[in-house]
Amino acid sequence: MRALKASFNCAAFTSNLARVKRYAPNSKVMAVLKANAYGHGLIEAARALNAAEGFSVLTLSEAIELREHGFTQYILLLEGFFEPYEVKVCSHMGIGAVIHHAEQINYINQIKPAKPIDVHLKINTGMNRLGFMPNEVPNILKQLTESPYVGNIVMMTHFADADGVKGVASQLTCFNNLKEIDGYERSVANSAAIIKYPETHFEWVRPGIMLYGASPFEDKTGKDFQLKSVMSLHSKIITTQILEKGQSVGYGSVFTAPNKMTVGIVACGYADGYPRHAPSGTPVMVDGNVTETVGRVSMDMLYVDLSALPKVGLGSSVELWGKDILVDEVARQSHTVGYELLCAISASSRVPLEYLNG
Length: 358
What we know:
Helix content: 25-40%
CATH class of the largest domain: Alpha Beta
Radius of gyration: 23 Å
Order of helices and strands: EHEHHEHEHEHEHEHEHEEEEEEEHHE
Strand order of the largest sheet: 2-3-4-5-6-7-8-9
Low-confidence stretches: none
CATH topology of the largest domain: TIM Barrel
Structural class: alpha/beta
Oligomer: single chain
Distance between the termini: 25 Å
Mean pLDDT: 96
CATH superfamily of the largest domain: Alanine racemase
Largest sheet: 8 strands, parallel, barrel
Shape: elongated
Number of domains: 2
Number of strands: 16
């Protein structure tokens, strides 16, 4: 059997959720479980995050799966309904929906669900992706409150740069200036805002990446915020090669040995979710020793420098990211974000998954 495996420390989920609650002690937590819980497994992540007051997902099938597994938390569809028939299913199963387009209100009134549906009214305060413009809110809110098929309403927006230099001030001011939101619960804070902007916490917070132990900030790691890595991607050395000075390894000959060196061949490649653009020098751990990759990542394999590790070789364990090699650092070296790397694991059917309780 191929050595590659992804392990998930479920206790780390619990720890990270507790960290969210320390940041926002007066808010209810809507744990973001979209994209198969960022590659960690929808149901397993929900079980480990069972203390959250709500779960948010992208698709109706994800929401149904949560209900069928017995989860009673508030469940929210982050992009709302895509088809009218979904209204009836949501009503029957007690699933809430984000409303970001007038046609979605038409769906509700057209289907006339037996039980009113709770909604999150999405307001576009500057992300310019989904949501109603502020001047549209009075009319849309009037339609929602007058419909007998709409239940509780939460006011919602999403920050474009909570993790960047612009911050949240402009969008938060736009949101807070809406008189119509008075008296309603509010939901605006993502992971970056939870950590950096306590004024955004309101009645609900929506943590995503921080629940998985990674950082929402490019210049920080999860450890900087006392978060614990949930996923560990690990493999083994399947053979070694001796390179003479001037020889290369892998496609494109992008790495040339500066001296005679030992290279370990690791059973993991971009088809498994490891970033193809990870450059030579990306950190990796072999038998508890930190070293680095060399050469170009291929579909099934990557290569690591073993020159300073004479006691390791065939069968040695490799941590590609996890507790010691942080996914944030691998992402930084690869000019991407931890979100992408974590999600890529669930996109690959080649990586066996293992769930640990401690």
